[in-house]
Amino acid sequence: MAAAIGISLLIVAAFALGLVLLGQRGAEPLFGDKIGVVEVKGVISDSRPTMEALDEFRRDDSVRAIVLRVDSPGGGVGPSQEIYQEVKRTAQAKPVVCSMGSVAASGGYYIAGPCTKIMANPGTITGSIGIISTIPNLSGLMDKLGVKLQTIKSGDLKGAGSPDRPLSEAERVMLEELNKDLYDQFLGSMAAERHLTPEQIKAINDSRVVSGRRAKDLGLVDELGNFNDAVKLAAKLGGIPGRPKLIQPQDKRDRWWGRMLKEEGRALLGHILEQAQSTGGPQYLYTPPLEGR
């Protein structure tokens, strides 16, 4: 009798544990070969969600490969480099296939560099391997408003880029040297990751943007195809037979909050935060020209 009760309790406990695990992963199966999908959309300003997702999938033995979906013009240098390092670390553990959307330029291309394979659409806007710093000069406007700033600084180059005055020649030289260093880091990393020849490097060292088709010719991407093609390639590289199960990363911080907000509200909030966080300082960012300029 006691043995029967014990067995029943074990069955109930196992069933409860199964429900808990299913609740953590939604309706996904507990076992089987999976492909993790990590999406990078919009301006890159916060690297943590992407890094956490890559780390989660890298540690999950049931995830045999990862698709990094990039639809981004780039963003901050630091966040782009942090994601780059995490992608590189993950690609050393399991296949990572980058699927480029409408644009994967500048920092958006930077994070794709260390992927096992890179796949773009023929019309994807990519490349733009370079650095840009936008420093507003509001001195004329401030004069009209009668606003004067009093600045006390420790050295001649402290506060370079302050919007209340034009850059001095020394400040301009310093910032150009900074941009050159950051550009060399970017180009050097991509040349090493993609095994580019001197001729290929010469073709892109002016920070030009190119189409996905042209990028393939230049050695910046491996294959042309859409997201589904990237999934098939990831499954092949991961040794997954048949149709793989795609899973999204868990977002523990957004588990209940995200359900409270409508998709439109979250998109608007995200856009506002991206714009606020991405202003100022050097950036690995592709900025399309405005019409009429």
Describe it.
By secondary structure, this protein is an alpha/beta fold. The protein is built from eleven helices and ten strands. The strands form two sheets. Strands 1, 2, 4, 5, 6, 7, 8 and 9 form an eight-stranded mixed β-sheet that branches. The protein is elongated, with a radius of gyration of 24 Å. The termini are far apart. Residues about 1-10, about 15-30 and about 250-255 have low confidence and may be disordered.
Short description:
The protein has 11 helices and 10 strands. It is an alpha/beta fold and 293 residues long.
Keywords:
about 290 residues, alpha/beta, 2-enoyl-CoA Hydratase, Chain A, domain 1, two-stranded antiparallel sheet, disordered N terminus
Question: How are the SSEs ordered, and which strands pair?
Answer:
Blueprint lengths: L1 H24 L8 E8 L6 H12 L3 E10 L1 E3 H15 L4 E10 L1 H4 L6 E4 L4 E3 L11 H7 L23 H26 L3 H7 L4 E3 H7 L4 E2 L2 H11 L7 E3 L9 H4 L2 H16 L4 E3 L8
Parallel strand pairs: 1-2, 1-9, 2-4, 4-5, 4-6, 5-8
Antiparallel strand pairs: 3-10, 6-7
Helix pairs in contact: 2-3
Calculate the mean pLDDT score and round it. 82
Could you tell me the radius of gyration in angstroms? 24 Å
Which descriptor suits the 3D outline? Answer: elongated
CATH superfamily of the domain at 32-129 and 207-285: 2-enoyl-CoA Hydratase, Chain A, domain 1
Please, how many helices? 11
- Low-pLDDT windows of residues: 1-10, 15-30, 252-257
Distance between the termini: 86 Å
Percent in strands:
15-25%
Q: Considering DSSP H and I runs of 4 or more, what fraction of the residues is helical?
A: 40-55%
CATH topology of the domain at 32-129 and 207-285: 2-enoyl-CoA Hydratase, Chain A, domain 1
The H/E string reads: HEHEEHEHEEHHHEHEHEHHE
| Overall strand count | 10
Write the CATH architecture name of the domain at 32-129 and 207-285. Answer: Alpha-Beta Complex
Structural class: alpha/beta
**Could you give a short account of the major beta sheet?**
8 strands, mixed
CATH C-level class of the domain at 32-129 and 207-285 is: Alpha Beta
